[in-house]
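Exercise 7b. Backbone tokens:
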């Protein structure tokens, strides 16, 4: 029993489905169905019938998915084995001689580049003004603090 729990714990960290995890899932869903049936008998509530159908649908979907995953993994393993067999066959068929590519002595042809006539050249308008460097009393050339100080000085001048 201890090995089952150890295998189940390790299967959590293993990608895909493992037989131990599927067994634990099936036992858990079977126990849930028994509990829902017992509650149905105790209360005669339709809710437990509905929950039982939902639980059964989920149980079936999980098992269907695990089956489809196994089929796909088997197909993938078969494809991989075929590719390896083909690679081995190609390696056996190839010669051990080295072949060097033949280089032609003619110059490669280069297609002429044509510019699009739809592009319009735009001449710059107006004057570009250079920003003045910060005054010598400031620590840095241009910073946010310097800009805020300039704004606050301008506001003080307006108030006067």
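Sequence design result:
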């Amino acid at each position: 029993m201890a090995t089952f729990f150890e295998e189940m714990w390790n299967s959590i960290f293993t990608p895909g489905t493992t037989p131990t995890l599927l067994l634990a899932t099936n036992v858990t869903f079977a126990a849930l169905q028994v509990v829902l049936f017992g509650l149905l008998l105790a209360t005669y509530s339709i809710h437990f019938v509905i929950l039982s159908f939902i639980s059964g649908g989920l149980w079936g979907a999980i098992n269907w998915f695990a089956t489809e995953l196994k089929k796909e993994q088997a197909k993938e393993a078969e494809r991989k084995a075929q590719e390896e067999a083909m690679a081995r066959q190609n390696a056996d068929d190839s010669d051990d001689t080295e072949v060097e590519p033949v280089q032609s002595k003619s110059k490669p042809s280069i297609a002429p580049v044509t510019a699009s006539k739809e592009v319009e050249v735009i001449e710059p308008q107006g004057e570009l003004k250079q920003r003045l460097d910060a005054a010598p009393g400031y620590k840095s050339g241009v910073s946010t603090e310097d800009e805020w100080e300039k704004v606050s000085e301008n506001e003080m001048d307006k108030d006067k």
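Instructor comment: Helices lie at 2-12, 19-43, 46-93, 144-159. Residues 1-92 form one domain.
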